[in-house]
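Catalogue entry: protein

Sequence with per-residue tokens
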Amino acid sequence: MNKMVMIAYNEAIDAEVMEVLENCGLKNYTKSTAVFGRGSTSGTHLGNDIWPGRNNILYTACKP
């Protein structure tokens, strides 16, 4: 049985995240770009002058 994994990350490291997926042999995914949110360690990202930055969310299925 496969497991669905959700990865939320800063859009600035998108190339690195995609490289890690490829190196792990994960070829299938769904990605949502330019999403906003707030994390306890990353702070607030709303894509505006006050809270700059945006995130991406990536979903992939993998075997446990």
Notes: The helical segments are 14-23. Strands lie at 3-10, 30-35, 37-39, 43-45, 55-62. The mean pLDDT is 92. The radius of gyration is 13 Å.
